[in-house]
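Reply to dn_fold:

You asked what the input looked like. This is it:
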Amino acid sequence: MKIPQIKLPKKLEPYRGVILFAVVLMISNFFWKYDVIGDEAKDVDSMVTFWEMNISAPFIWMAHHVSSVCYSILHYLNSAVSLNPQNIFHYSNGNSVQIIWACTGLKQMYICFCIMAFSRGSWTKKLWYVPLTLFVVYSFNIFRIAFIVACIENHPHWFHFLHLYAFKYSFYGIIFLMWVFWEEKIVGKKPAVELVESKS
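and this is what came back:
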């Protein structure tokens, strides 16, 4: 089944893919923002809802999982940080940070999935590339959390910049690069026949 394409002005046609990327990104982000509701100011076990349905379980599990993996990495690197059951990383100098449901990377994985699902290309290729992109997003989130936790030991004032700006937009940069790789290297250019048909 072929999805009908919206006709764009000739000047915008070369940017169809980028426009689709931006539109899907904005719509999926908007959908998440207004439909997945949870209090980010409360503890790790705060309720998360989707259309008033309780969907907290995967977020709580993922928050504990991310905390545990990051703690293992930091412990391997000889960090003096400790981790309590509430996902609070704590240093002996009093600096601490908590991993809550919004830190799980699930939002970014969902947005990445939406972008890849609506991108051109066969589902045969998407069956292996989409899981790969989700793993990359997951891995980057682990790196992000571990890096921030390591930094706050001696530079707690860096937290807001790293959390709210640097890594937040790096997430979308990585998703964009994976989409570009998909478009340019995996799917490739459109066949000549299709290009001729689009011009006629």
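Strands lie at 36-38, 48-50, 53-54, 82-83, 88-90, 96-98.
Hope that clears it up.
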